[in-house]
Amino acid sequence: MTVQQLETVEQEFLAYVKKMGSYGEALSLVFWDLRTGAPSKGIEQRSEVIGILSADIFDMSTSEKMESFLKELEGKEGLSEITVKTLTECRKEFDRNKKIPKEEYQEYVKLQAIAESTWEKAREASDFAMFEPYLEKLVAFNKKFITYLGYEGTPYDRLLDEYEPGVTVEVLDRVFGQLRESIVPLVKQIAESKKELKTEALFKHFSKAKQEEFTLKLVEELGYDFEAGRLDETVHPFAITLSQKDVRITTRYDENDFRMALFGTIHECGHAVYEQNISSDLMGTPLSAGTSMGIHESQSLFYENMIGRNKSFWKRHYDRLKEYSDGQFDSLSLDEYYEAINESKPSFIRIEADELTYPLHVMVRYEIEKELFNGNLQVKDLPKVWNEKMEEYLGIVPENDAKGVLQDVHWSGGSFGYFPSYALGYMYAAQFKNTMIKDIPNFDALLEEGNVTPIREWLTENIHKHGRLKKPLDILRDVTGEELNATHLIRYLEAKYKEIYNL
Amino acid sequence: MTVQQLETVEQEFLAYVKKMGSYGEALSLVFWDLRTGAPSKGIEQRSEVIGILSADIFDMSTSEKMESFLKELEGKEGLSEITVKTLTECRKEFDRNKKIPKEEYQEYVKLQAIAESTWEKAREASDFAMFEPYLEKLVAFNKKFITYLGYEGTPYDRLLDEYEPGVTVEVLDRVFGQLRESIVPLVKQIAESKKELKTEALFKHFSKAKQEEFTLKLVEELGYDFEAGRLDETVHPFAITLSQKDVRITTRYDENDFRMALFGTIHECGHAVYEQNISSDLMGTPLSAGTSMGIHESQSLFYENMIGRNKSFWKRHYDRLKEYSDGQFDSLSLDEYYEAINESKPSFIRIEADELTYPLHVMVRYEIEKELFNGNLQVKDLPKVWNEKMEEYLGIVPENDAKGVLQDVHWSGGSFGYFPSYALGYMYAAQFKNTMIKDIPNFDALLEEGNVTPIREWLTENIHKHGRLKKPLDILRDVTGEELNATHLIRYLEAKYKEIYNL
User: Fold this and answer.
1) Which residue in B330, B340, B337, B326 sits closest to B210, CA to CA?
2) B349-363: per-residue pLDDT in tens?
3) ipTM of the assembly?
4) Tens digits of residue pLDDT in A324-351
5) CA-closest candidate to residue A293, choices A405, A161, A488, A179
6) How far apart are CA B300 and CA B290, in angstroms?
7) Which of A20, A29, A280 to mutate to test the interface with B (most CBs of B within 10 A)?
8) Rounded distance, CA A374 to CA B360, Å?
9) How far is Cα A105 from Cα A91, in angstroms, rounded to an integer?
10) How far is A40 from chain B (nearest CA, A)?
């Protein structure tokens, strides 16, 4: 191929990939709409639209055209970095979609749908046996897929790689072990401490309209660009990217627990700010997305906890919160409020857990998944193992499976290997923060001033802008000079919680 | 082909058409989103999505696959009525899209975009000369397209046929002439009448939140199904069909003129109720849509005027309106209110015109379009002819072109032949009403009771359910036993306005 021919093929390839992205954008709009107010009677027909657009993307990702692009471009000199990395993403998709026989995959997709609706009923009835046969099939499918796709290390590493490239069982065992050694004793110390936090005010009535007003101003100040996004209500809040110029966030208002909307929106804002600030050079390629689930979660958790649950942040905002509220905070000092929103105690439900105990919930799931795929754990034994692990890590045992092994939707959709990302997010965030304060030593003062811009810009410069150009552990290494470790997270949690609980 | 083979091809054809419909559904969602709050920075990339989905539909409508379906199925015995009529729709699309050379059409699409943005600026500056060269090109393109597509009767009939199949210049000259002969003198009589209507209350402050609450309840009572639709805010209100199970309406609130949202929403509700009640047998085919612009407009106008501006309707709702309002109606009797919302006087802007003068605005445009395509009228002479016609029909001359020939967006998008549908809607509605009251003699009593169901069911049974299975004039004939005429509209308007103005 001449240089000119190569350039032509490269341009055609990028246009082809952009078209796939446009189908994805339409699909994202459909999902956003479904979750923010699409009328119920239209859903059945809308699922046809989803099927068609998904099939278009799938077909394009495995087409002869794609195959020939890969063949003609891979390994060639003179391609842009964006093209090279885009080829890597397309190759990964191509191989995965080609290696799994189409019929088996279609069967699996059908199973996912039935499994998810069965899981809903099983959780409702707190009846694991109802869900068990479906979960067994989902595990079996995934084991088969792992053999089709191949793996280095252990079978479960293959699943982890989908969500957090480079993070293996070996890595997780090390960092989760390190984290657990420090957290489990700390959780115990807190449980034994005599300190009573004043949390009643958190659950007093706070009008939805006022919450909304307060939250909107807050996320705007935090750097969320409303000209490239919007905030809507939904049942299970999420952030969704249509394009990097249209990244939408959603929230849910609970008039008897304002933390739901407040910290939930700040969390989604962290996800959205990441995607809004990816370099525009990557627009229209699969690189215009967060690089991994864990790095994504590091951004949402950075916003939610390092900013949103920081005392300096509330030095600025607490008086305004009082103004908007119905008076419940009038007799609560700033310190008392800060402690209340940072209360930690073992609980059954992961998504309701506090910053300190949350990673332990994740580890329960990680140990189970690891044993399912690398060991001899049987699906039927999950409830028992779940409860044992909860006892071991958190010191509590759920009274039923609805509050235990059946609580999460993930497994019913066949998502194994996803959970560790949540805990990785905490570690990444703490590592980033540790480096950031060397560049921005006045971090707390900036929060108190309401000037988040330097912090957001630091994140953009170091993390956001790269999109998927860099792998998660490369970003971590480039930014912090360190490998993944739990040291900074442990230091952060110990400092914070020892102060709050006078330990 | 054996019967079995034919059946297989028929099923494949219907699946193919359904897929086209699904792309259309995704596209409708994109348009709805763009007009109800999509963030501004995302629009440029979203236009790529629009381009791709539109191209998919276009390509499918002119593909070799489509050609072979048409060839194998057209004229065959044993096909369902739905298939036969769907073939007719597809043939029409196929021929139109094939007969116009693709390059010319693409050039035309580009022109449309530039022309529309130029028109906006020209209207802003009230400078027809700025828009003139673009309008000239648009007319020239359409003249060329007419020769490609061919026509019976006159060239302009070809354009009319796009919006109102079967309604020709011959028909329009007859019915518009009949209508004008009665309306023009009536408008003059009203202008000369001494009666002063008490309209000040209409323009007093009415809070948006209260308007919204009132309007929502109203359209629900009028039979709009909120499980198959939703109401949002927008700048230029519209109804849009994603599928017949998801037909959305939009509105605009003016706190100093509540009529905008109230009658606007009732109008869009009429459009939406039509599409929501098309027979579900037609779902997934191009027949699942209103049969023509005119019949569509007959339903929205029936709702807006025959129901929403009817005195019996307000006997039920006026007290509630008073409750929701800020007190401005307290000293206005029901009769005075009824007269105020039915005030008629010549005005410059079509979309602000009342029920009586509105058709005259349409006729000004009709006469101009007819002369442009069938006669010798030159684009440069449009402002002059516009003002002459306004003088002749409405007795007023706009002070500038912004309030005259430049007021409507339609021509800038190349939509010639569309305007007559608006006036046809009035005639159809009056003809339908005349027949309906033979079946439902207690029409007014039902409105007063708030029981619109029998009225809605009558419209569904006679009009809605057929979708595009029947052509507009066939529906009219089947329902009323009459040809298109202005008699019932004239009677309705004369009775109404002579009472209001004591003539």
Assistant:
1) B326
2) 999 999 999 999 999
3) 0.94
4) 999 999 999 999 999 999 999 999 999 9
5) A161
6) 12
7) A29
8) 80
9) 18
10) 6
